[in-house]
Every structure is written in C-alpha cells, then in structure tokens.
Amino acid sequence: MINHPVASQSGISYLARKTADGAIMTLPTLDRTRSRLSWRIAALLAVAGAPAVALAASVVTPPPDSIMIDGQSYTVKTLASPQREARTGSFDRDAQSNHLRGHVTSCAEVIAIPVGVAGGDVSYGGTCLLDQDGQTSSAEVCNDEKLGLFKLVPVQGAKPTHKDLTAFVAANCFGG
Length: 176
Fold this sequence. Notes:
Helix content: 10-25%
Shape: globular
Distance between the termini: 44 Å
Mean pLDDT: 76
Radius of gyration: 19 Å
Strand content: 35-45%
Low-confidence stretches: 1-14, 29-48, 50-60
Number of helices: 3
Largest sheet: 6 strands, antiparallel
Number of strands: 9
C-alpha cells in the first residue's frame, strides 16, 4: 500500500491509501511521524470495524457544514484546538479595542465562515464566556479582522445552536 499526499482547501494535509479491497481511505496528517501513527490507529480501528473518523479529535478536523440562513448557503467550519484558543484571544483583543467591559476568557464553540474564494476573507464567530469584574456570563461574539467588524452580545436563555451562531455571524460580521 502506498500513501498519496492530497491537498485540501482547509490547509490540512491528507494521505490517501488504497486498501486491499480497493476502497480509498483518507486520514489527516500534520507530519510524517503522526502520519505513521494515524495509519496504525486507523488499521486497528478498521480491524475492529470502526470508521477511520473515530481517531482522536487532535488529529481529525470535522468537515465543513453547509447551513442555509434566509435562503443563502454558508460553508461553516468548526475550529478545533489550538485554532479555537487563538480565535478566543482575537475576540478578547477586539472587545478591549472596542472599550467593552470584561474579557472573553474561553469559547465552547468557534466557527469560521469563508467569504468568497479560497484564501480570501474569513468571518469568525463563537459562543464564549465573558468575565466582567468576576461575574461570568455567556455571549455570542463575531469578528472579521479584514473588514474590522466586531460584535459581542450577551446570551439570554438557552445556549445558541450551531445554526443560531451561524445566523449571528452572517447578520453581524459577514464580510463581502
């Protein structure tokens, strides 16, 4: 079996391998060492009958979703660690530069919505915790650094769904 590198628009490298039964299996890889380890884990999972996507979250990034909001389709990528933490810092810097009271301390979910072509502008949003003088509350946050857009709104009631967060970003920070 030969590993074939495959490029992706998300910046993650994938290896494709043809199995003995002719099926194509792909795995994300960050470097050669992790690649060998990923294949070994995938082989063990395959023997056990589990799909390759059952690999650890640090190795596998969820595929983008396509979400319809008011008749428009948005490609939404959920960010995993460490990108999620980096974006949390970006949200906090924007909150401070907009002279908002408190700090964005962590985000349970962070999404990226590409605007237009690959490598172009990206709008981000998150369901985050806001610390204001020791009081912690939930907030929806979004930004588009290229256009200088930023919005932070306290969450009232239930935690926003993935689609709610997408609609919030589309309405408040979607560049174009």
